[in-house]
Write a structure and sequence with these properties.
This is Histamine N-methyltransferase. Pfam families: Methyltransf_23. The chain has 295 residues and is an alpha/beta fold. It has a domain at 14-178 and 196-226 and 283-292: Vaccinia Virus protein VP39 (Rossmann fold, 3-Layer(aba) Sandwich), CATH 3.40.50. The protein has twelve helices and ten strands. It has helices spanning 15-24, 28-38, 40-44, 63-75, 90-101, 118-127, 149-158, 179-192, 204-213, 238-248, 253-256, 259-271, and strands at residues 7-8, 54-58, 81-86, 109-114, 134-140, 160-171, 218-228, 250-251, 273-276, 279-292. The strands form two sheets. Strands 2, 3, 4, 5, 6, 7, 9 and 10 form an eight-stranded mixed sheet that branches. Strand 5 (134-140), helix 7 (149-158) and strand 6 form a beta-alpha-beta unit. Helix 8 (179-192) packs antiparallel against helix 12 (259-271). The protein is globular and about 55 Å long.
Length: 295
């Protein structure tokens, strides 16, 4: 039986559910939190940072953003932070606003909420001729959703103050995807939908090549992570279907795919996994790239 064309997941209301299922079953949040609590404080400790008390936070991921703000406050307790939040999903933005409203220790932060993509944010910034600079910008789960990653990196890097830092957290091979999603997308991109994802070329290697070519100093940290994909192997499991949607980035993957394609995807997924305590754990890792401003 032939597969029907896939609908790109990021264009649908099912995306937030699939993303949540993925985050609930992977260690990305944990390894990112470990990086923020153990490594980021030393990066932020530079006393030359935050002379104007201004910070841009790109993408709202809830707890991750709050953890970064907490570390900023610990290292620079007297600084008032002007926090530009950029998030195109109204649901995600509202979720973050609710989290912030419940946090009593964020009185040092002024939030500006931008319900827009990074591309729209860049256009907004240029049209308004805004000249203020940032001391710290973080881009988590951002490059996965841009048409031109090189232009996006260049724009946000241009916003850095002297001694400023740009933190990019990116999947092992391509954007936020991690290794399992990359393997699946590359193996079955024609069957799934060649247009399923706007950014196909960005990777840690591409970013490093870009930075080296421009003489921009940076440092890379590799963060080990895994994804519990066990539910994917139980046909009809609701969580498993959400995970498969996210891993293929196709809405209703099991309904779209032929039985043969679904089995092939599962075979590839198992091939990059290990079985531990009865759970199928897909091996993965992500990269944290800390980019310095050009003084």
């Amino acid at each position: 039986m032939a597969s029907t064309p896939g609908v790109p997941l990021y264009d649908t209301d099912r995306y937030p559910q699939s993303l949540k299922a993925y985050l609930d079953h992977c260690e990305k949040d944990q390894c990112t939190s470990d990086f923020i609590s153990r490594t980021l404080p030393d990066i932020l400790a530079n006393p030359c940072l935050f002379p104007f008390g201004y910070s841009v936070m790109i993408a709202c991921l809830g707890n991750i953003d709050r953890e970064i703000l907490a570390q900023l406050h610990l290292k620079h307790p007297g600084v008032l932070v002007d926090n530009e939040v950029v998030e195109p999903s109204s649901q995600q933005l509202q979720k973050y606003r609710e989290l912030v409203s419940q946090e009593p220790n964020l009185d040092f932060v002024n939030f500006t909420w931008n319900e827009m993509t990074t591309t729209e944010f860049e256009e907004h910034w240029r049209q308004k001729n805004i000249t203020k600079k940032a001391d710290f910008i973080h881009m988590v789960q951002v490059l996965y959703y841009v048409e031109d990653a090189e232009a996006t990196i260049s724009f946000f890097h241009s916003l850095l103050n002297k001694n400023g830092k740009l933190l990019i957290i990116i999947g092992a091979e391509n954007g936020w995807m991690g290794l399992p999603i990359f393997i699946i997308s590359k193996t079955f991109q024609h069957q799934l939908d060649a247009k399923w994802h706007p950014s196909k070329t960005v990777s840690p290697a591409v970013i490093k090549s870009l930075l080296n070519a421009r003489g921009i100093p940076f440092k890379t940290y590799k963060l080990q992570s895994r994804v519990n994909v066990t539910p994917c192997f139980t046909e009809g499991d609701g969580t498993g279907e959400l995970l498969l949607d996210f891993l293929t980035h196709v809405q209703g993957f099991s309904e779209m795919a032929s039985p043969e394609l679904r089995q092939e995807v599962l075979t590839v997924l198992r091939g990059c996994s290990v079985v531990q305590n009865g759970r199928v754990m897909a091996n993965d890792y992500i990269n944290a790239i800390v980019i310095n401003s050009l003084d």
